[in-house]
Protein 1
Amino acid sequence: MAVGQLVLPEFNAIAGLRIGTASAGIKKTGRKDLVVFELAEGSNSAGVFTLNAFCAAPVQVAREHLKATSPRYLVINTGNANAGTGTKGLADAKKTCTALAELTQVKEQAVLPFSTGVIGEPLPMEKLLAALPNALDSLTENGWAEAATGIMTTDTLPKGATASCIIKGQKVAISGIAKGAGMIKPNMATMLGFIATDAAIEQPLLKQLLKEATDLSFNRITIDGDTSTNDSCMLIATAKSATVSEADLQDLATFRQCLISVMQALALSIVRDGEGATKFVTIQVEQALNTTEALEAAFTVAHSPLVKTALYASDANWGRILAAVGRAPGLENLDVEGVTVYLGEVLLVEQGGRAASYTEEAGAAVMKQEEITLRILLGRGQVQETVWTCDFSHDYVSINADYRS
């Protein structure tokens, strides 16, 4: 089960966007596993994709189509990643686009495909194509909740977020869903994420906003340090409400903060639902020279199996934290006597060793909590960055050992 409460919100409907969900039986018979997004004409879209060299066939096709034209439809399947499938996988991804384009009377390039699930197995095209009409028949402005369930793989709960702000006297809505619980160290975004707004935003600015919000949300989380072959995140603007532009800096700042809040909520819900997670952990690195070294230190601690298993055991083994900080890339000439570490409000480390005020009882009391904050003060500068992660439990091993069975 997830750490803390993960409850889908009452989504703001996004004018100009409809979502349909159907069952194709790709991995499990009867399970909703196919989702279609329909974007109104005049919508703009931006995307970020995995940096994994073995990126999946749908990632390659989606990138190509996004460069060619503004998408009108997104099609997502779960249960099969269509990754590591060679030329046949590419052909299948394109065939999916062609089939949906024919059903909706749009160009093939106006359809973007997305897949998630098992790597290396052929996509069951007959099942997928047969279910496309059902997905189209179910299109509705209120389809967010069903879609959030329809894109899940090892997730235990669906993930969604919604918010609104006032731009030029008009309400501007933002809603989004995401999936992900394992193979999470998204070197760009999350496993799959789809966020939409009814604002009117030109594509170059939309792309910039997506990158900025991604860097402060999905690029600040990790479950296990593995970057997926299928990571994709889309931001859609349907142009049915107020215009957001660089001409009005106040409106732009308001919208940017609203977007970041939605994307951070989605990102943190992925960490809370990490495979086998029992602890939600915030790692805050302060007094760094620059952003790069702050993030390197935070991620090195977050990825450490020794730190993560100590968190699971509620063992305040602070030596593992020091060891991780000490081997973080880029921390040249680190003065260890200047490093200070806090576990919650408990001072763990100062002047190169255990703090004189520290007791095992105080450390253990914090480690038993479901939500833990670890602060690492490097004593080198003024930059601060935050990364979110979880612990490693026995269940993480079991889930991934049994994933294909």
Note: The mean pLDDT is 92.
Protein 2
Amino acid sequence: MSRERAAKLRLLGLESGGIVLALLFLSPFYFVLVNSVKSLGEILVDAASLPKTYLFSNYAKVWDVIRFPKVLLNSFAITAASVACIVIIGSMTAYRLVRRPSLFNKMLFGCFIASMTIPFQSIMLQLVRVTSLLELRGNLPGIVVCYLGFGLALSVVLFHGFIKGVPTEIEEAAVADGCTPYGVFWKIVFPLLLPIAVTVVILNALWIWNDYLLPVLIIGSNKDLTTIPLAVTRFFGQYTKQWDLALAGLAMSVAPIVAMFLLLQKYIVEGITSGSIKG
């Protein structure tokens, strides 16, 4: 067998394996979309089959029951505010740690890395107590501060690796032209961080948009800040589970974040690989 033929067979095998893995990972989307337009009886009989009758009225019911525009706006506000804080503070922190490599800054960077190994479940009770004492529960600033605390470590690590590849000569030239330190960062450095900044946005937006546990602990019973994951739990009671409506609500909730991911996903690989090979 020639090398060319062997290479083609190897490529065919890799592509076939990739297709199988893609279908495996896409199968949950199939079940969600198909069952979101079924009746509850059809779902319980056969969840894998196509619907006999397409009940798009499930989406209309969900829209009214959970007040979808309201919870969508809440999820968007919390996600946007949290991601903006993470990107701004994370990039500035990483820039300082890279450009001022003192012993304290090195230890601080080590603390950021070490904090990523702490399971969230191990600090839930302490988090509830601290947020209650600081009156951060049940309001938008409280949930944003919590997301900032839990999302900052990974973001700093990603920005840190990318900033190492930014030439210091550009900053020195800007300083020589009279640019202030803040001007150097925002006008010179930050625009160069666009690939990794988009990566940080996508990773944190996916997490925050779909998060359930932290909003339960911090938002609690405040209905004015109910997010989509919290609203969808309304269809699961002690004795009844409205899978038809729940899956319709799930399909509606993931649509915006999936659209954003598809538009920006190319920056994830670009940002992470750039940060890993530079410096």
Note: The chain has one domain: 59-277.
Protein 3
Amino acid sequence: MLALIIIVIAVVVLAAAYAAAVVFLARAVVFPQRARPTKIVSVDDDGQSVVLSSNPLTRFDGILGLLYDNETKLTVLTPGTKVAGDGSTVTRQLAERAPLEGGTEGRASGNVFTAANVTGTEPVDVAIDTDHATQPAWLYAGVGTNSSTWVLHVHGMLAGRDSALRSVRALVGTGYTSLVISYRGDREAAGEGRAPSTLGQTEWRDLDAAIAYARSQRAARIVVVGWSLGATVALEETVHGPQGAAIDALVLVSPVVSWARTIRYGMTRQRVPRWLAASAIGLLSSRLGARLLGLPVTLHLTDTLPEPSVPTLVIHSEGDLTTPFSATVAFASASERVAVVQFPPAPHAMEWNANPDRFSATVADWIAAHLRQIGALREK
């Protein structure tokens, strides 16, 4: 009898541990945590170089932003890294002198611009009314005949509008109008608290409202640039959005084209057993999971890849350790509408940072070419 009791207790304990692990993993997906801050170890006397804690981002040999002073100020790290012999720190050069202080914390990031300096002119603050809240956006007015082409820039997870300023920069000189939007869950709307991400499955509604706004301002052509989760948002809009048919082309950067594949990829990298990752995906896809995690909808997560309805450019790198490049390859292989431009190995969503000139030329040339094709078809 005692042996039976012990077995029952052991089974109950194991079941509880399994359930707790599954909930923990599922929660980590929809309530992601930011990486640890970057330690600013020391600054040289002339303020031209800085020693930072070593991590995959600070070791990345590309242009980077460095937030400092409680992440209220931004400076720029130029390409080129010098890793300490023990691998614990890296030395980076600053693009210009900045009042950094050793022994403080900062945060390395992909964005190197502010809303005011990305194009040389201040943006207009725009309020986009959605069914969720009033979402703020930055509007950079275009010039000339191309100004009626609106490019909507959609940022990724754990990032704000500023992370999408790189694609705004890429289009400087084209004459296009740029609208950098926010969406539910990014905490940019006034009074918005922390909420779980629905992985693009409700956020598309805010892109839909932004497209409606653009059309109300006489936008003749609409292109959406989606970064990471922003790519999911863009793809969801083309399928579900009332305004989705107004999109002429998509540009997707380090895109999440399948959350099931991305979740499994990330958990495999964290050495989570495949069966446990599958359980977490199953919970996320269930009504029970929605209730436990406070999700407003039951998520639909499968390995099935979307089929874009418009010409789509994907910019991605095999160095991405967040979103599997293999999913991008499969996505492109399944559709003639998708073109992939592979960049040198770079961290997630850092293709611009690896080669800004190539990124800008690729995006600007591709958009121009496809809009000309669309125009020619419409004239027939």
Note: The chain has two domains: 39-109, 124-258+305-379.
